[in-house]
Amino acid sequence: MTPPTQKPSRHLIVNADDFGLSPGVNAGIIRAHEDGIVTSTSLMTRWPGARNAAEYARAHPDFGMGLHLDLGEWVCHDGGWSAKYEVVPPHDAARVRDEIRRQLHDFRRLVGRDPDHIDSHQHAHRDEPVRSIAIEIAEEIGVPLRHFTPDVKYCGSFYGQDEKGDPVPRFICVDALIDVIQALPPGATELCCHPAAEADIDTMYANERLTELRTLCDARVRRALGEAEIRLETFGSLMSRVR
Predict the structure, then answer these.
(1) Which superfamily, per CATH, for 18-242?
(2) Is the pTM of this model over 0.90?
């Protein structure tokens, strides 16, 4: 008798960016972890909520925690992007390296351990010279770097705006997230999200975060994961089996 064909396994890390940005973001990420499908988060060390976020991480060591590099934020006006703020000039390699190391030091001081992955605000590390520096530091501490770790695919489909910053609420509804889940490829995928319990931030992506939270906590989403036999992971749990 021919043995049954085994379906390729699928593993999903649901990572909430911007932990530490504000009390409302912190509350939303915590709720999406405790009542929803969020397994992991990324800490912004420079912001007022960072200390409270780190306290939660210390008390919940099974909650995956990475470093969300914050080098600036850019906003779209009339079809063009401009800096809302810059922590350091993104093309100054020496200052970028110093700032990334400072944020890594602050993460260690706040959380009491190394991050289990690294990513960045608005994907700033995809461009040089930030890219090479981020790769260097991720390799140095032995953790995945978003977009540059072949073992973990990145999915940014769960996002409520288009490339011009215009709202697209259908991208973050329950049906859209279930479609993303059902279409996940074999292997490991990181799904990025940005939940919040309150839009208490001055940013172009604010009210969409409230919708994300409701979707991430919807029972239909959890049920879809079970039906698709997708295993929820953190970067730490995933990489412990790869190594």
Answers:
(1) Glycoside hydrolase/deacetylase (3.20.20.370)
(2) yes
